[in-house]
Amino acid sequence: MIDPTAPAASDLDIPRLTAWLEDRLPGFEGPLVATRLSGGQSNPTYRLDGSSGIYALRRKPFGSLLPSAHAVDREYRLLSTLHPNGFPVPEPLALCPDDAIIGSMFYVMAFKAGRNHVNGQLPGLTPAERRATYEAMIDELARLHAYDPTQLGLADYGRPGNFLERQVGRWTRQYRAAQTDELPIVERLITYLSATVPAQTRTAVVHGDYRIDNLIYAPDLPVVTAVIDWELSTVGDPLADFTYLAMNWALPAGEAAGLDGVDFAATGVPTLEAAVDRYCGLTDRDGLPDLDWFFAFNLFRLASIAQGIKRRIIDGNAAGTTAAIAAGQVPQLAEAAWMFARRAGATG
Length: 348
Prior knowledge:
Layout: H1 14-24, E1 33-36, E2 45-50, E3 53-59, H2 72-82, E4 92-96, E5 106-110, H3 127-146, H4 149-152, H5 163-178, H6 184-195, E6 204-206, E7 215-217, E8 224-227, E9 234-236, H7 238-246, H8 264-267, H9 272-283, H10 292-315, H11 323-327, H12 330-344
Antiparallel strand pairs: 1-2, 2-3, 3-5, 4-5, 6-9, 7-8
Helix pairs in contact: 3-9, 5-10, 6-10, 6-12, 10-12
């Protein structure tokens, strides 16, 4: 989301970046103005305004980072694969692995203008528009999961087998690497999730953070024109993607994407059952397994991400103006995850 009050970015070397863009992007012309985009806690993103047009830049955060995090070169590879295959992502333009240009690796892509919905209740839309907006979101996720990673040349983009087991291990390691407090409830979660991983039945490209505020819609139509923020993408179990999206129906309605408590009939927002039916119909599934384990896992993953943000605050290289709020959510996310774990059968 563009923050219209944001000042020009002061953490980029504009002259050096301008020279690099002039050398790498055919037709690029300055002068260049860079503005930090609000939202997100992962890879800082900027709007670049030049005489030749508008671009977007995404870079690694500065400073010490957790292992395997913030791999913008992976994002760039995925965009370079999906864009020519017709999936709605911003067009990738150039990758810079040289830290010397702006202090970290980055890539430049086409800037996608349009609507970005932050509130999952979609205020300001009609019931029909809300339903169509959600249906378009589900349709694009099903479309992503229909791609064969091998045919795309992405067989090595992730290890396809035992995906959820490896994900539990990965986010446990990420949590440990960023850990600042002893939280017994997190320890119980890690023990439970590690011992009860569901079997994987399908393999697909997964976004890893698929939610409504990571989509750009056309200015006047419920059409997805770009899926953004691919930092957590990999090859794995598509159910991890859909259940992460479905979790919003179990989270309290408020300023974010939560939908629990929404009057679905009045607002036009589809029920969870309707969302599941649509996804299953598009992906040739008879139904989904019990969602409580997946909700517990996804909330644990969010707690691990929030813990990483907390560590970056301590280390002085947090990204985004709402980092402190996100960092403070670790206990609440862990409590919510444990609630779903209990519903899935956890004891203790």
